[in-house]
TrEMBL record:
The keyword Transmembrane applies. This is Outer membrane biogenesis protein BamB. InterPro entries: PQQ_b-propeller_rpt, PQQ_rpt_dom, Quinoprotein_ADH-like_sf, WD40/YVTN_repeat-like_dom_sf. Keywords: Membrane, Transmembrane, Transmembrane helix. SUPFAM superfamilies: Quinoprotein alcohol dehydrogenase-like. Residues 228-339, 373-591 form the Pyrrolo-quinoline quinone repeat domain. The chain crosses the membrane at residues 12-31, 83-102, 132-151. It comes from Crateriforma conspicua.
Length: 595
């Protein structure tokens, strides 16, 4: 007897069981729907606590209550979402079983083959009863299918609402009229900041983001006059293991070093002592939606390629799946936002940027036609969005920078084909230039005269400040096409612009005129770490851990020292208090002159 015969002979019992099963699941879903949390961030108690915190910004007890309530509401939301997900599918399975089992009620069943006590039924009665039975089952199945589809759609809408709330992006966004024809940013309610303001001087004195305070690889040190050697221990002040992988660079604020790490199953943030490398804490970051599939990333990118940022009070990290977390100095979660899933063929790698009380997240993804790319600008204290900028660009891996022009902060972001300047105050566009192609990885840099962008194809471009709208034909002062990087970012040293390719060629260009390289030098290593400036000296860190301190000029490049880290390194240095912090493949290093 095969499976079909078993089903056929027991279809009547199966139909009854499946019907009761459907009723049970339906009632459970009905009562669950009544208590559903449509928007976890509109919880009345949570909102009331936030209002109280605005009036009492220094009340630590209120902050703790907000964190606890926020975590509770989000857990309840995703628990109900998972219940709906399974309930909808159980409804579908039950409906299919009822439909298949109840086909015996239809008129296609032969009444002559059914033995009924009390005589044979009249054919007309049989067909009338079977038609009524089939109609009832059809109505039940159709109703169950409709309920399942509606629950599934509601579950998706609830999730979208939660993500929208986590980004604080209003559904009813307004379009700005822009004189330069740029893209409009989504306007959002103003949120009062409850984090103590951080001065520009404090930001400038800490290596709080990728490539330092200006995002251009310039340190406050006037020279680099020491070397290090893994074999002898020279110049290595301390070295500590980092147990979880990551390709993001370290950031430093005061007496703390911060690192983000992740693999397929784990995300964590760690804080180390600047003094001796003591591990102060490790925070495991759990995704609030356990049903989310793992993202696919390339081995070169990994699950934690983005460099963190910090303002000394909070530390921020983003992972390849789009999960963004803010932690306090003790490693406690302050807020969590799910900005994913992110569609990126290599994995998300753009680093986080802080400017005052705003956290900038470049989320270029997919293809240009997907309309998925955007820049989210968030309030650092709450994680709520100040605005979101839609970008008609494909995926990129570049990190934006912020430059101050005429008293206004300007956000510069790169992706194929545009380098675009936005007003940081409201996200409106100032100008754009078609200067890039293909997979854009290097970050922009700026001088008083130019914004300089680079990618292996089509090359480097210097865009003059001061334009509006599309400035491709009016404000490009020079271009260059030889020895242009595909991963590392340019470095400005006086009147020179240095370009370091991934295959080990360092080239120098005149910052005012570009053209052909003034000189080119080849190094016996590959490079992913961007060059870093120490006054007139420049540090180059190779993938194998070999390091060169060089002194470039118009006439050439002098090698000052050669060093050896002792392990692979693809991250850029952090520099603070006369020391260099480097993340190797397995260790975090503090390098400096030994007393």
């Amino acid at each position: 007897m095969n499976l079909f015969q078993v089903f056929y002979r027991n279809r009547n019992g199966l139909s009854v069981v499946a019907t009761w099963f459907l009723l049970f699941v339906g009632v459970a879903l009905f009562f669950d729907f009544g208590g559903r949390i449509i928007d976890p961030y509109s919880d009345s108690k949570l909102q009331q606590l936030k209002l109280e915190l605005r009036e009492q910004p220094n009340n630590d007890s209120l902050k703790h209550q907000i964190r606890q309530r926020d975590q509770h509401v989000r857990q309840q939301y995703f628990r109900r979402k998972a219940f709906t997900w399974w309930g909808a599918r159980l409804c579908l399975v039950g409906a299919v079983i009822v439909f298949l089992a109840s086909r015996r009620l239809g008129p296609m069943s032969d009444p002559s083959r059914i033995q009924i006590q009390g005589g044979d039924p009249e054919p007309s009665d049989f067909h009338r009863n079977s038609t009524w039975g089939m109609s009832a089952v059809t109505v039940l199945v159709a109703a169950c299918l409709m309920v399942a589809v509606l629950l599934q759609r509601n579950g998706q809408q609830d999730l979208s609402a939660a993500l929208a709330a986590s980004r604080a992006v209003e559904d009813s966004s307004i379009e700005r009229d822009q004189a330069d024809g740029g893209e409009a940013a989504t306007a959002l309610p103003e949120i009062q900041n409850v984090v103590t303001p951080v001065s520009a001087e404090e930001f400038a004195s800490n290596w709080y983001r990728f490539r330092g305070p200006r995002g251009d690889g310039t340190s406050a040190m006037s020279s680099l006059d020491f070397r290090w050697d893994a074999d002898t221990g020279e110049g290595i002040l301390w070295k500590v293991p980092v147990e979880c992988p990551g390709n993001g660079s370290p950031v430093v604020w005061g007496d703390r070093v911060f690192l983000a790490s992740a693999d397929e199953t784990r995300r964590c943030v760690q804080s180390f002592s600047v003094t001796d490398g003591t591990l102060l804490w490790t925070k495991e970051v759990e995704h609030p939606d356990p049903t989310r599939p793992a993202v696919e990333v390339s081995e070169d990118t990994g699950y934690a390629a983005s460099t963190m940022t910090t303002n000394g009070q909070l530390a921020f990290a983003i992972f390849a799946d789009g999960l963004l977390v803010a932690l306090d100095r003790d490693g406690n979660e302050v807020w969590l936002r799910d900005l994913g899933p992110l569609e990126n063929i290599y994995g998300h790698a753009s680093s986080l940027v802080l400017s005052g009380d705003r956290l900038i997240v470049q989320l270029d993804q997919g293809s240009k036609s997907d309309d998925a790319s955007r820049i989210d600008v968030l309030d650092v204290a709450t994680g709520d969005a100040v605005y979101s900028i839609a970008r008609e660009v494909p995926a990129s891996w570049s990190t934006p920078i912020v430059a101050n022009r005429d008293g206004q902060d300007v956000l510069i972001a790169c992706a194929d084909p545009w380098v675009i300047a936005y007003n940081l105050s409201d996200g409106s566009e100032r100008w754009r230039c078609a200067a890039l192609r293909q997979d854009v990885g290097p970050s922009p840099v700026f001088s008083d005269q130019h914004v300089i962008v680079a990618n292996e194809s089509p090359g480097a471009t210097a865009v003059r400040w001061g334009g509006t709208g599309d400035v491709t034909e009016t404000h490009v002062d020079w271009t260059a096409e030889y020895s242009i990087p595909d991963t590392t970012s340019p470095l400005i040293v006086g009147d020179l612009v240095l370009m370091l390719t991934s295959y080990g060629t360092l080239a120098a260009y005149d910052a005012d005129s570009g053209g052909d390289p003034l000189w080119e030098i080849d190094y016996e290593d590959n490079f992913q770490a961007s060059p870093t400036r120490f006054g007139d000296d420049v540090l180059l860190v190779g993938e194998t851990g070999l390091c060169w301190t060089v002194r470039p000029s118009e006439d050439g490049c002098e090698t000052i020292t050669e060093s050896n880290l002792g392990e692979d390194c693809v991250t850029s240095p952090a520099v603070a208090n006369g020391k260099i912090f480097l993340r190797g493949r397995e260790h975090l290093y503090c390098l400096g002159p030994q007393s």
